[in-house]
Amino acid sequence: MRWLCLHFPWLELELHGLSEEVPQVLLDSRRRIKTLNPCAEDLGIKTGQALATALALGPELVVLDTSDKRLRSALEQLAIWAGRFSARVCLCPPQALLLEIASMLNYFGGMMQLIAAITDSLRSTGYTARMAVGETAKGVQLLAAIENRLCSDAQSWWAGLYALRIDQLQLHSEQVERLQGVGLSTLQDLLELPRAELSQRFGPSLLRELVSIIDPGAPAPETYNPPEHFRQRCELAAEITYSTGLLFPLRRLLSALEGYLTQRQQKVARIHLTLNLRGASTQTLDIGHAGGCAAASAWLELCRLRLEREQLKGPVLSIELSAEQGEVYEAISGDLFALSHAQSSLPDLISRLRSRLGSEAVKTLSVYPDHRPESVLRVEGSYREVSPEGMVRPSWLLPHPQPLSKSQRCRLELLSGPERISSGWWDRMVSRDYFVARWPDGRCCWLFREPDGCWFIHGWFG
């Protein structure tokens, strides 16, 4: 197998909104520095320092707080997002994901193309990640926790792994002290010792840790299985009082939705936003797409148009996004004459207009199974795709059929027909024989003959 690890070094800070100007830190249970941003690093603050020491170095230091539940929720949201890049995504708490990528390289065209796709998509989430690719699940986790390691050849990767210091192997602090106390400094030093001696001197747990690091066949973490129905929540770092300010946190939620749907090859026609306001009240928004969609960019545009005309009822504390049951998405293959883009853009246009103007302001013409041409088209609020197969009908139907004289009929060339249409006994009986005909100048028309022998033009073909 080939593994890719995404390590999110500032995940907890980015949940609050990572600052580039203000030093920020998070504390562990002992009130020592657990995570810090680059601005705090520039002040000389380091992980493991006491809070008092950090405050002495940076009096303007901002101390943030987060919960394990919130961190787990963010990691699961990222796992759903990563589902578009791998069928096997594993959680590595507290701040890493593991993706099996060997089966996806052909699909993306190679490892670097896959990395580029992940990097590009990651920008929309607002999170920062270090990446490492390699042969063992535990090994790539250790490397990604330190730096980006995207080696194209196995020899370079193993060399980088063996060079890891003892204190970078995520061992218990007591084990690290004992190993360093006998002069061992790197993973290479450990592996040069006989396994039996290691187990005897430092215990079998150390040997198991080493095997998990270097053995490609060692068990990987359990694969994450997303829930059956998509529902994600985003806690905001600060209250948001203007509607368009919700777009940035929405981008994260919609990226997760796209990953969720891509993994299932589905699309959804409607999403539901619940805005949790100050004072325990809520505000709900339903946003629809005429043809159904999975792309985060398309949904974000619809959300933007809707929010521009929406007045918030109060400051927003958190956002919850849920989606209705998805339907199978059939990707449109390449079209020699570029017709597919035009066909797919109509539902997008209708969706944008409804988000901007409201659902009641936009109506569509729908085709109903009625043999009478004048009763086929109806105006309704919902959009339905119509297959043109078997429908030889003019694009321009006249409001009222026009009589055709005998001299005019003699000039016409009948191309097809007759097609007998006899229907409507329950409200207005129609019995006609329809033909497709061509005029001398090349125009094609749709005409019919009634039982009494009279001829009429009913429409023109474009």
Automatic annotation (TrEMBL):
InterPro entries: DNA/RNA_pol_sf, SulA_CellDiv_inhibitor, UmuC. The keyword Transcription regulation does not apply. It comes from the Bacteria. Keywords: DNA damage. Pfam families: IMS. GO terms for biological process: DNA repair. Residues 18-136 form the UmuC domain. This is DNA polymerase-like protein.
